[in-house]
Amino acid sequence: MFRPKVSLTDIYICLEPIDFRKGIRTLAILVENTLSRQSMSGQLFVFRNRQRDKVKILYWERNGFCLWQKQLEQDRFHWPTPKSGHMLVTGEQLNWLLDGYNIALMEPHPVRQYETVI
Q1: Coil, strand, or helix at residue 62?
Q2: Rounded Cα distance, 31 and 36, in Å
Q3: Dist CA 109 CA 45 (whole Å)
Q4: Sign of CA pseudo-dihedral 31, 4, 7, 16
Q5: What's the pLDDT tens digit per position in 29-86?
Q6: Up-side HSE of residue 41: CA atoms within 13 Å toward CB?
Q7: Which among 94, 99, 73 is positioned nearest to 11, based on CA atoms?
Q8: Is the per-residue pLDDT at 1 higher than 70?
């Protein structure tokens, strides 16, 4: 299982939803134009879709971009309320968000058990 390191700092969460058809290049451009950050800095940039059931994480690793995605089957991510274009979080807070916690209230999603995708 891949998860961001808890020790990471300066992870940028884009507070506004994005079109999830966007790929690596378009997300990198979004990081530079909208968030005013260097997309090749090695930092993590986190995006969500409008329904809050999907998350993408973009980061630069040595010689290329990596894109990680998580999709929830029933629940929704508890996304922070927009106050500006982005929010800075730690690796620990990002993992809480991915686990379903409302990082403001620290309440998780229920654990779901499935047998098959069919």
Answers
A1: coil
A2: 6
A3: 23
A4: positive
A5: 999 998 899 999 989 999 999 999 999 999 999 999 999 999 999 999 988 876 768 8
A6: 14
A7: 94
A8: no
What would you report as the CA-atom Rg of the chain, rounded to the nearest whole angstrom?
14
Q: Which helix (H) or strand (E) holds 96?
A: helix 91-98
Q: Are strands 54-61 and 64-71 parallel, antiparallel or unpaired?
A: antiparallel
- pTM of the entire predicted model: 0.82
Closest by CA to 15, choosing from 99, 91, 77, is 77
Burial of 58 (0-12, 13-18, 19+ CB in 10 A): buried
Only one residue has tokens 């990198």, namely 28
CB count, 10 Å around CB of 68? 15
Spatial distance between the Cα atoms of 65 and 43, rounded to a whole number of angstroms? 11
Residue 21: strand, helix, or coil: coil
Per-residue tokens: 30: 């979004």
Sign of the alpha-carbon dihedral angle for 77, 82, 87, 93:
negative
Neighbours of 56 (CB within 10 A): 21
